[in-house]
Write a sequence for this structure.
């Protein structure tokens, strides 16, 4: 039976519930402001193209990180590993102390987090408005995979991917 929602609030609530049911990778997008690192946790991150290699990330329109990405034309993507949920929470907070106590190093001029399961250094090839976010399209300058299980977010909880038994 089809149902029609009558209010924007009902549509927004239903949308949030649908999206909570989608398993997403958890990543920290980073950039440098001079010698000061910046970063934020994102779950809207995906592969866009293999030829040429490109990804997309969604950044809050009002974020300091987006302003920095606009100025520098570069960003890093740290794909978090399954044991890094505390790091995901730390970078999801507001404020300048996100890197406090975090092991990182500059990789190609971008902050790379210790222990991440994957790393991408990107050059901005486009910015697309998307409601309260902006989609940053990144051409891959460098990539490194560690092979560890990824951190995922599903039903408002952190977890990881487990292959079905018998799968290669």
């Amino acid at each position: 039976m089809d149902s029609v929602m009558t209010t924007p609030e009902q549509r927004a609530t239903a949308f949030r519930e649908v999206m909570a049911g989608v398993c997403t990778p958890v990543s920290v997008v980073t950039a440098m402001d001079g010698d000061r690192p910046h970063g934020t946790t994102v779950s809207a991150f995906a592969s866009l193209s293999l030829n040429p290699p490109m990804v997309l990330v969604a950044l809050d329109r009002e974020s300091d990180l987006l302003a920095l990405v606009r100025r520098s034309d570069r960003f890093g993507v740290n794909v978090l590993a399954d044991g890094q949920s505390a790091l995901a929470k730390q970078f999801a907070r507001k404020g300048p102390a996100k890197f406090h106590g975090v092991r990182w190093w500059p990789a190609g001029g971008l902050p790379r987090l210790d222990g991440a399961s994957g790393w991408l250094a990107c050059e901005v090839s486009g910015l697309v408005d998307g409601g309260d976010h902006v989609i940053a399209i990144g051409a891959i300058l460098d990539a490194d995979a560690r092979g560890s299980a990824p951190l995922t977010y599903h039903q408002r909880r952190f977890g990881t991917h487990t292959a079905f038994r018998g799968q290669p």
Summary: Residues 8-20 form the longest helix (13 residues). Helices lie at 8-20, 64-72, 85-92.
